[in-house]
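Work Package 4 report. The design task specified in the project plan requires that, given a folded chain encoded as structure tokens, an amino acid be chosen for each position. We show below one input record used in the internal validation round.
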């Protein structure tokens, strides 16, 4: 084995041990100590302790001041909740997205609110011969996409302020990068319950989006239709607006929202 292969092997074993420690901590609701971890994983207590300290520093595990046991940390809880929310939103969106596409013929998209932007989690292609849409896994901006604007408009004032403080990238000449104008648009979006972004993410493209709420009553995502601006106008038709809003409300109810 070469030096490089040996280093790669050591690194891989370290990753495997770290993941094994996390699994043991998760499976022990009342916490687990260094000795038990070392015995369960067949390694030394000093090695376990080093890994645990790194996990504590990163927020993945937590140790009470008066205890020798390690428990699940806030960062790991947050990741787990994100996965749960993501899967729940995907399941809830599947049939409504299909119905929305079948009713209007445009590509239908569902996205999840994340700190970085709107994560596209599900899409249904439109019926046009030229496919217009976005890829699953894409991150849409808060200011240059209809999904991002509608989710931001229904988020807290603090979240809106954070979006407006950040650098607002100019994707096209039509992208709104003025914090003042965006703040005014957020107010309009909140009153009407939907948002558009004609030519703002890409020239010739428009999206109409409405917010999705979870069981806690907080905005967690958005659903929308995507097509060329000649088919989804800057001022959408009443049918486009009502069907998109109804789809968002349907998904919200499936997530437990009762508002």
């Amino acid at each position: 084995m070469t030096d490089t292969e040996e280093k790669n092997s050591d690194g891989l074993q370290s990753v495997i041990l770290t993941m094994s420690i996390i699994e043991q901590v998760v499976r022990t609701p009342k916490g687990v100590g260094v000795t038990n971890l070392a015995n369960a994983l067949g390694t030394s207590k000093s090695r376990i302790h080093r890994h645990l300290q790194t996990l504590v520093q990163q927020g993945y595990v937590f140790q009470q001041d008066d205890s020798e046991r390690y428990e699940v940390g806030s960062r790991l809880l947050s990741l787990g909740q994100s996965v749960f929310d993501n899967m729940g939103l995907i399941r809830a969106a599947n049939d409504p997205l299909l119905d929305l596409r079948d009713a209007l013929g445009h590509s239908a998209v569902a996205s999840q609110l994340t700190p970085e932007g709107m994560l596209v989690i599900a899409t249904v292609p439109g019926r046009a011969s030229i496919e217009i849409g976005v890829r699953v896994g894409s991150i849409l901006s808060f200011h240059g996409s209809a999904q991002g604007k509608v989710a931001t408009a229904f988020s807290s004032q603090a979240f809106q302020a954070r979006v407006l403080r950040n650098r607002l990238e100019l994707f096209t000449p039509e992208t709104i990068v003025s914090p003042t104008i965006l703040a005014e648009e957020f107010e309009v979006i909140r009153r009407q319950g939907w948002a558009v972004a004609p030519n703002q993410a890409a020239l010739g493209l428009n999206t109409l989006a409405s917010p999705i709420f979870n069981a806690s009553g907080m905005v967690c995502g958005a659903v929308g239709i995507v097509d060329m601006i000649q088919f989804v106008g800057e001022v959408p038709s009443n049918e486009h607006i009502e069907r998109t809003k109804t789809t968002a409300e349907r998904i919200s109810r499936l997530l437990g929202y009762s508002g």
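The chain has two domains: 3-72, 82-254. Validation will be extended to a larger panel in the next phase.
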